[in-house]
Amino acid sequence: MFEYAFIQNAFIVAVLISVVCPLIGMFLVLRRYSMIGDSLAHASLAGVAVGLLLNINPILSAFCLTSFFGVVIEALRRRFRRYAELILVIVLSLSVGIAITIISSGLVHANVESFLFGSILTVSREDVWSVFILSIISIFLILRLYPQLVFLTFDEDGAKIAGVKSQIINYIFAVLVAATISVSIRIVGILVISSLIALPVATALQLQRGFRRTLQLSVLFSFIDILAGLFVSYWIDAAPGGVTAIASVLLLMMVMAFQQIRLAGHHTDIERM
């Protein structure tokens, strides 16, 4: 199957997003910001619609508009802490409203389903380069800001006292979330991006390891989920987004079952002693 150019393109993109998604997802999950990722995933649909309307690369247009909404959410979240969930609903409603208006108006003559559910057939070489550039920038910034992000994740107030520029870093992080979502829409699809960001991390957390080890395991589980979704969807001729989401949940259940069996065996050994 690798003799086909579209499979090669899809595989490269899948490897890249299998690294980027859990790197961002780890901080989102631990900071209880998973719903922000879900809202921005839906906001990316507006970016795709605008890109198709203006005849520019949908990945780049999705990144620009999703970054804008991410910064808006972060600004309003800091200003209206009691109404954080309402802010997400407003942004989600506005972005989806923009997307539906553009798509239903007939101004866009393209297959939007490939962005909603993911597709391995529509990944072009231009998409690969766009994903590669955004992924490298995202990974570089995460590594560069890693100590500050970890500090903010576990103790934001303490980080502020220690002199960490939390506001700037949070804005940068919002843009990184937007970049992660943008690079994933071609393969995974807009509707299940949030699961790809959160589920590999949730799976790794079941093993109860340290932060760095959990991050490494989440990348491994993400890689397994995405490649399983990619290959199985190819063989059964289905959208990779749905297959990837199913694979993510199944792997989570398998790890949870393994952990329960391991803990039960550990307790039995203690009782025998």
From TrEMBL:
One of its GO terms (biological process) is transmembrane transport. SUPFAM superfamilies: ABC transporter involved in vitamin B12 uptake, BtuC. It is a multi-pass membrane protein. The keyword Aminoacyl-tRNA synthetase does not apply. The chain crosses the membrane at residues 6-29, 59-76, 83-108, 128-146, 187-205, 217-236, 242-263. It is found in: Cell membrane; Membrane. GO terms for cellular component: ATP-binding cassette (ABC) transporter complex. It comes from the Bacteria. It holds the Pfam family ABC-3. Keywords: Membrane, Transmembrane, Transmembrane helix, Transport. CDD domains: TM_ABC_iron-siderophores_like (cd06550). Belongs to the ABC-3 integral membrane protein family. PANTHER family: ABC-TRANSPORTER METAL-BINDING PROTEIN (PTHR30477), METAL TRANSPORT SYSTEM MEMBRANE PROTEIN TM_0125-RELATED (PTHR30477:SF0). This is Zinc transport system permease protein. It comes from Megasphaera paucivorans.
